[in-house]
């Protein structure tokens, strides 16, 4: 396979991932439900956590599922072109969710899409993430802290499972995810971060 073909496949996987990842399910679903623009509700984030602030659990669940599946689908499609291209598509999907062209490059924080990408890359790593998140969320009641720690462990798990390309790409995803959670990290350090189920 020529270098040109390799480059074409890499760019195609990246573009596919970005286009799928940039679908703003939170915006689409809330508008379809007649709830207006989710970017004007709560934190203004387009993800499931903010959608839940509308009081519509079903719409929030649909947003969570959509944001996760777009990462999974991107990875699985790209893997048909070459196993390593799945990781490239994961990067594209994550970038698409964080920086969707349709919303002026202002997207979500990426936790659901991160999980979806992990499902496509390695379901064992996704299970470890889910177990860590659930355990930490139960003990600390901090959703953001649970996501931050679970995501940070993911590259190590992927590397231990022998998927070095996915592990390397996931490091980039983790850095971006932590960067998008900058305000959450500041609140965690200050002790002012809201807990799961906390009112107000």
Describe the protein in words.
This protein has helices at 3-21, 25-32, 48-51, 57-79, 85-98, 111-121, 123-140, 143-160, 164-180, 182-190. With 200 residues, the chain is mainly α. The longest helix has 23 residues, at 57-79. The model has no long low-confidence stretch (mean pLDDT 93). It contains ten helices and no strands. It has one domain (3-190).
Please specify the SSE layout and strand pairing.
Blueprint: H1 3-21, H2 25-32, H3 48-51, H4 57-79, H5 85-98, H6 111-121, H7 123-140, H8 143-160, H9 164-180, H10 182-190
Helix pairs in contact: 1-4, 1-5, 2-4, 4-5, 4-6, 5-6, 5-9, 6-7, 7-8, 8-9
Mean pLDDT: 93
Helical segment count: 10
The tally of domains stands at 1
Q: Could you name the ranges where pLDDT drops below 50 across 5 or more consecutive residues?
A: none
Please tally the β strands and state the result: 0
Quaternary organization: single chain
Topology pattern, helix = H, strand = E:
HHHHHHHHHH
Question: How helix-rich are the residues, as a percent range?
Answer: over 70%
β-strand amount: under 5%
Measured on Cα atoms, how large is the radius of gyration? 17 Å
- SS content category: mainly alpha
Largest sheet, strands/sense/barrel: none
Distance linking N and C termini? 58 Å
Shape: globular
A few lines on this structure:
The protein has helices spanning 3-21, 25-32, 48-51, 57-79, 85-98, 111-121, 123-140, 143-160, 164-180, 182-190. The protein is mostly helical and 200 residues long.
């Amino acid at each position: 396979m020529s270098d040109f073909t390799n480059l074409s496949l890499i760019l195609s996987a990246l573009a596919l991932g970005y286009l799928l990842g940039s679908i703003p399910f939170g915006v689409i679903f809330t508008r379809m439900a007649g709830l207006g623009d989710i970017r004007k509700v709560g934190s203004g984030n387009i993800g499931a956590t903010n959608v839940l602030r509308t009081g519509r659990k079903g719409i929030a669940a649909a947003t969570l599922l959509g944001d996760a599946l777009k990462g999974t689908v991107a990875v699985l499609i790209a893997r048909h072109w070459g196993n390593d291209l799945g990781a490239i598509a994961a990067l594209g999907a994550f970038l698409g969710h964080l920086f969707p062209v349709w919303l002026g490059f202002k997207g979500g924080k990426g936790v659901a899409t991160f999980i979806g990408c992990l499902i496509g890359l390695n379901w064992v790593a996704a299970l470890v993430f889910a177990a860590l998140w659930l355990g930490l969320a139960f003990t600390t009641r901090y959703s953001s802290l649970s996501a931050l720690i679970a995501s940070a462990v993911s590259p190590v798990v992927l590397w231990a499972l022998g998927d070095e390309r996915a592990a390397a790409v996931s490091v980039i995803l983790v850095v971006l995810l932590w960067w998008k959670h900058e305000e959450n990290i500041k609140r965690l350090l200050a002790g002012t971060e809201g807990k799961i189920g906390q009112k107000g």
